[in-house]
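As described in the Methods, two query proteins were run sequentially through the folding procedure within a single session, without resetting any intermediate state between them. The first query and its resulting structure tokens are shown here.
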Amino acid sequence: MKYIVRSCRLPGVAKRSYNQYCGLAIALDLLGERWSLLVLRNLLLGPQRFKDLSDGLPGIGTALLAERLKQLESAGVIVKATLPPPAASAVYQLTADGEALRPILVGLARWGLTRLGEPTEQQYIAPDLLALGVQARFDVDASAGAVGVHELRIDDRSYRVEITETGVDIRAGAVDAPQLSIATDTPTLVAVNSGALSLSAALEAGTLTVAGDLDRLPDLVEAFGLSLA
């Protein structure tokens, strides 16, 4: 028997709907508007102020960003909160439902990594995007020797890299006493990611430095699908 849905109004659903009784269609009703997934992508690294999101999504426009945030709040995947003093800033962060999207978003990023190619002059590149790209490279089956808390520094941004037996979690923020601390710059990480530069060459040139338990470096490199050679 064929059912035709004439109207489908769910809380948080955008005005336009696929009107299909399908989990994917409903998910796209909620999240499929332009920029919505990129807003969620940026929040994977932790809470952000409106200005942080605006700066990290060049081209969106403040009115459209406000609209997307309102839609995502209505969908229950993000929430507006206030950071504790001394910051006391209003921020947006993922809810539990939003966190449930993490493996899906990282999986999409992993699928897209093989299609990146060399960056063009028109493409926006930022440390946060590269940190998320690092997360997308992670291979849990090769990570047993890398379990622990590490630090990744790209330009002037620090990220906490926590590897467990079941996965990796990368968040913006400094790390106290990391087992390994890796520091580099945007051009070097782009070149390493694309395969144009080896890690050993970056280490030799001094554009990538490592501190801490150096015996764990090969395991960490392997966990992210790279090679020291």
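Immediately afterward, the second query was submitted; its sequence and tokens are:
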Amino acid sequence: MTLRASAAAAVLAATALLGIAAATAPQASATPVPQPQTVTAETRAAAARAASAPDTLATLSRFFAREGRISPAAAQPRVEGEAIPVHYLSPDFVAGKAGASVARLEFLAGKAVSADGQQAVLWTARTEAGWQVVNIATGDDEFRYAQLGAEKLPGGTVFREPQIDAWYVAGGGRVLPLDEDAVAAVGSGGTTLGAYRTRVVKAYGDKLPGSAYAERGMAGGFEEPSASVGGGVPVGGGVAAAGALALALAGVGALALVRRRTAEA
């Protein structure tokens, strides 16, 4: 099942996982909490504490057991390695603000592994309640594309264009693709930073925060159960929208939104 086709099902699966009725979930409309501009030792430590908290590990046990391959008691999840920064297409870049970078920091990603070898990524972000895990995602996309980007353009910034689930690496005035969605958008050889800006302004210039699109409650792609993620995620929705929905569903438990990804061939 692809990410686009399973957006609504993923939200329902998340609420079932937490034992909360999907019908009670409000729109993801909370005021976004700005994420740090850079990653420091303090932010990494805060993310690590949130990822290894007992409540997070308990929810990971249920997450890994959701398909019945292992029991929650046997899952014994652990968090491996250090969290990495994850960047998304910046709304300031789309808006044409002077000096704006192509991407902004959205969250820190930590890798979780179960006793039977399943992997998941913990999205940890700063919220009104402090640093919390706001999403658990299957797979290892964030880590895999970070490695691919470092190999393809050392020192570049790896970022995701969530509206089409495309991953890129930017640097030296170029934007290079890291997956098939990005190749479809900018070609196999990539494009210039200026040409990329022209493309995203055309695609998302009317979907920035404060736009009529965003004010209709479409941030995050959850406006209609049948809507595709590719067409329903305005720039700036990112982790703020996911985090708002997650916190609304999970209360002080922090986690909710389960995001399934397309399996790699």
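Residues 238-250 form the longest helix (13 residues). We note this only descriptively and draw no conclusion about the first query from it.
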